[in-house]
Amino acid sequence: MFKWFSLLVCMLAVFLGWYLAPEMQRPLDTHVAVVPDVKPQDKTAIPVTSSAEVPIEQVVLTQDDPTVEPVEFAALVERGEIDRAVDYVRADPQGLGQDLEALRMLTDAMIKANRIQEAMALLYELRLYWSAEVEPALMQMVFEQVAQSEKRLAVKPVRPEELVALYQNLVILHPDHIPYSLRLATWQVRAGDFTAAEQSLLTTVNDAHYTLLTEEVREELERARRELENPSLRVPLKQVGKHYVAELVFGNGRSAQMMIDTGASLSVLKRELLEGIDGWEQIGVLAINTANGVVEGQRLRMPGLQLGDLALDGVEVGVLPLERLKFDGLLGMDILGRFEFFIDQQQSELLLRPLGGSGF
């Protein structure tokens, strides 16, 4: 009896094994997250996470290789993708962050996009990763980019407040660099914030290397204060090369382009200019020693001259053969010496104020 029972159990086990074998070969019914293929250029990695714990839409790709080839970086900047380029540099401060050519390309693009403050902040941030041996090369580039930024902001009409903001930020980033404080004081003067300019100059007076520059800024500050108390007459100027030219108008409306020459004691005109001028009076002859010998001319008294809005009467001028002079004449100290004068190079103006501040 027992033998027949054992035989029956064995046969049942064989039958069940044959019946259930196909079912055991089917895949398990689980929720497996299928992650898309990652292309090599994506340079991304998939975090190791149980798919049963995190749904597929929550799997985040994270960047584990922040490097980028120089050619790819240049193309990125050229396409104007500045934010992505900045991210690459910040993620790779000891690679791209120490490539001067790449940094110049990027900061040039940022400056052109009026993202000057961001460009300066980025360069000073990267400075922390540069060794003492190579840091001077970076700082030289920083100073060149600062100069380029100032030139870009100082176009007419000049907005001194923007330049004040630039140098305020630079002083914070690099407080021991005296030229930043001097430029800050200069633009604070031109913005009319004299008290702030005084405060900025306090940080420069103890550095002997910048004594002369500090004095120049202080003189500009004092002129601005006097100008506020006693406004000057402003005469428009043209800049031709290194020279400044003012327009002098005669009584009959004829005008002359006069180059300002503080080394000339007498204002002089070209001889051919007399043909279109009336009312002058000859009061003497004029002889001037030149490298080519003595040049003779006339000494005249001119009625009714006009320099900007300033009327001048009875002015004596010399008339000489000045064929090589490309202007109509020279405006000398016989006229300029009547005033306290100053050339505002930023505004291209001649500022005239009567000596003693007594008014015009």
- Give the low-pLDDT segments: 23-65
Structural class: alpha+beta
**What fraction of residues sit in β-strands?**
15-25%
Strand count, sense and closure of the main sheet? 10 strands, mixed
Shape: elongated
**Measured distance between first and last alpha carbons:** 143 Å
Determine the mean pLDDT: 82
The count of helical stretches stands at: 11
Q: Find the count of extended strands (DSSP E, 2+ residues).
A: 15
Rg, rounded, reads 40 Å
Order of helices and strands: HEEHHHHHHHHHEEEEEEEEEEEHEE
Summary, kept brief:
The chain is of the alpha+beta class. It is 40% helix and 21% strand. The strands form three sheets. Strands 4, 5, 6, 7, 8, 9, 10, 11, 12 and 13 form a ten-stranded mixed sheet that branches. Strands 3-15-14 form a three-stranded antiparallel sheet, with no helix packed on it. Strands 1-2 form a two-stranded antiparallel sheet.
Question: What are the main properties of this structure?
Answer:
single chain, 360 residues, alpha+beta, ten-stranded mixed beta sheet, three-stranded antiparallel beta sheet, 15 strands, 21% strand
How would you portray this structure in words?
- The structure is a single chain.
- The protein is an alpha+beta fold and 360 residues long.
- Helices cover 40% and strands 21% of the residues.
- It has eleven helices and 15 strands.
- It has helices at 2-24, 70-78, 82-91, 100-112, 116-127, 135-153, 160-173, 178-190, 194-201, 211-229, 333-336; strands at residues 44-45, 62-63, 233-236, 238-240, 243-249, 255-260, 268-270, 281-290, 293-302, 305-307, 310-312, 315-320, 329-331, 339-344, 349-354.
- The strands form three sheets. Strands 4, 5, 6, 7, 8, 9, 10, 11, 12 and 13 form a ten-stranded mixed β-sheet that branches.
- The chain is elongated and about 145 Å long.
- The relative contact order is 0.06.
- The model is unreliable at 23-65 (pLDDT under 50).
